[in-house]
Amino acid sequence: MCLIVFAWQVVPGAPLVACANRDEFYDRPTRAAAPWPEHPAIYAGRDLKGGGSWMGITTEASGGKFAALTNIRGPHERRLDAPSRGALVADFLAGSMSAPDYLASLAGTADAYNGFNLVLGDSSALYWFSNRGAGDARNGQPLAPGIYGISNGLLDAPWPKVVRTKAEFASLLCQGAPEDAYFEMLADTTRAPDLRLPDTGIEIALERMLSAVCIESPGYGTRASTVVKLYADAPSQLHEKVRQ
């Protein structure tokens, strides 16, 4: 998952509303969001190479949990022998630990992974964790009510597509917009001007390409868009549009 914007405890009756794009190489085998045969309570997409996921929910009977992951861009830090980060989402959704206990269990192992952001919780509490953050981020930071955005930097890092999408997302929430409007937001292929691009250690042409909300290129891009809603008194919903 390479872009997620979410509203926590902002919309009455819906503690969490999240919209996200998953960016990946087109040839990486993937299964679209569906119940997992070995864990029917999980509803999520699946990375068939690593076995994990980038975003998913569980049924109310299994705690009504939510988890989402973004990679942190660090081309000079990336280790080819690191474990798959998608397991962090899958293990939380499949397990019985609460979010705080699960995050505490990562304390000794998080640095084995390449850089990541992890957002997880349920309708009563939501947390952000990053193995490239500092302070509370390393322990699992409980999130206050608000609107947040993450791409391939830390929480609310002011990358152009994070800033732009958060603003549009807030507007759509205020309008009570239909779900199609959120998917339209996620389909924006506009690239940021060079003067606003972050410097993440990659060449400028690649930085430009990756600056769009919806990435299009010959071998890599946005493969799925997802809208998730956790309700206070109704089953959670996850709707996905597969692009590639």
Order of secondary-structure elements: EEEEEEHHEEEEHHHEE
Mean pLDDT: 95
**Strand content range:** 25-35%
Structural class: alpha+beta
The biggest sheet, with number of strands, parallel, antiparallel or mixed sense and barrel status, is: 7 strands, antiparallel
In total, how many beta strands? 12
At the fourth CATH level, what is the homologous superfamily? Answer: Penicillin V Acylase, Chain A
Tell me which CATH architecture applies here. 4-Layer Sandwich
Count of alpha and pi helical runs: 5
> What is the topology, as strand order, of the major beta sheet?
3-4-5-6-7-8-9
Amino-to-carboxy terminus distance: 14 Å
The total tally of domains equals 1
Based on CA atoms alone, the radius of gyration comes out at 17 Å
CATH topology: Penicillin V Acylase, Chain A
CATH level 1 name: Alpha Beta
Overall helicity: 10-25%
Q: Which blocks of ≥5 consecutive residues have pLDDT under 50?
A: none
What does the oligomeric state look like here?
A: single chain
| Shape annotation | globular
